[in-house]
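Write out this protein's structure.
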Amino acid sequence: MNLRGKRTLVMGLGVHGGGLGVARWLLRQGALVTVTDMAAPEALAAPLAHLDAAAARLGASVCYTLGAHLADDFTSSDLVVINPAVRPDSPWLALCRQAGVLIETEMTLFFRVCPGPILGVTGTKGKTTTSLMLAAMLRKAFPDTVAAGNLRVSALEALETITAQTPVVLELSSFQLERLGEVGLSPRYSLITNLSADHVNWHGSMAAYARAKAQIFAHQGEDGVVVLSTTDTGPGSLIWPQAGYRGHLIRYDVTPGANTDAGITADGTLTLAGAPLAHGNDIRLPGTHSRANALAAAALAHSFGVGPAQIATALRSFTGVEHRLELVCEIDGVRYINDTTATNPAAALAALEAITTPIVLIAGGADKELEFAELGRAISRRVKALVLLEGSATQRLNQQIADSANPQSATRNLQSISGPYDRFEQAITVAQGLAEPGDTVLLSPGCASFGMFRNEFHRGEEFRRIVHGMAVTPPSETETA
């Protein structure tokens, strides 16, 4: 793409690095860059400083419209690159279409210019862990493998290191995939970890969310590969066949003894193409979902040409991902685990299944219009004490827990509910006071983070900071009262 001298608008600089990476890449292509973001300048201070520094090194400059959007910025541009979370019915995009302005995203640009093979990973939960696990396996055979996408790593900025032989692992969100589908782009190699309700308030329906996920393989050719779970009995089981598999379909299953391409035996041995790969206990991450992620990644890596021995070595050495069932520390016999990226009920359910010790759960937050009934039952049955965070979804979650079982039920384990708290440190201190040696204090909110935090990563970073502080300074009696 020849972008030199093109008037280019970046819609949404953000704080995760995606917009920053796009803008810096456009500057290097010689484009005339304007950035527009509804956030105020002070909220974007760090990315603005980085972008200005990059422009200065290139002898260029960037124009900014911050705290608002202006119609003229959109209609006078040759190209608008939008943040993937911009809704398709945005009036600003309607302006672009009326003016004949080309609309792209970081991912659509990347797919058009990337010289190397792309392996895409998506799913409702587990996609980050699976993406990085897949990249670790690929690096055993292809040391230059790049991992980017929805990982707070700019794919466009990695282009300089990518050749025609460089495998590129991309974690792809439903937002990114919907945009890719609109222009008929899918990665040649694709994987869907699982599908459950999420982002329904954005997509409009569960079926629309599933169709967005299906774009990861919907536009593959006959040489494409797609890895899917055989245990998906939800909307995905209806959507995937309708989307069609023109390439090679690989199935995996964590049901012991299932007849599938990648599976697990009754004694816990992971198998690939019918041959033993590794034992489930070799995986250093807890929970059945971690074994499912491992099987899915192994199946796709093997299809790309990575040997079973190399895959097994990567599995044994993979220690996990920050903010995902991340052990922060142990204080007085209590383990503190950061699972802040559990922003939907399905992810929180997976965390409750993975942890075998008594749990003091910190949950609640902003509403994504998801169903909490199953999570409410699991909390009532599995959690010892619940500490709620203030947020628009918290009351609904609390009501589902109350409706899940009466206090005299034999299956009810929940002893107390505290909160909701609008101060995170207070919530963590209360959780500390409720925990006993051998317990786990688990941050797995099951909700979005907006309101109290900038995003879920900010929530996890604050959890780590506060917990590490508690390890140094024991709480006073007044703090725990």
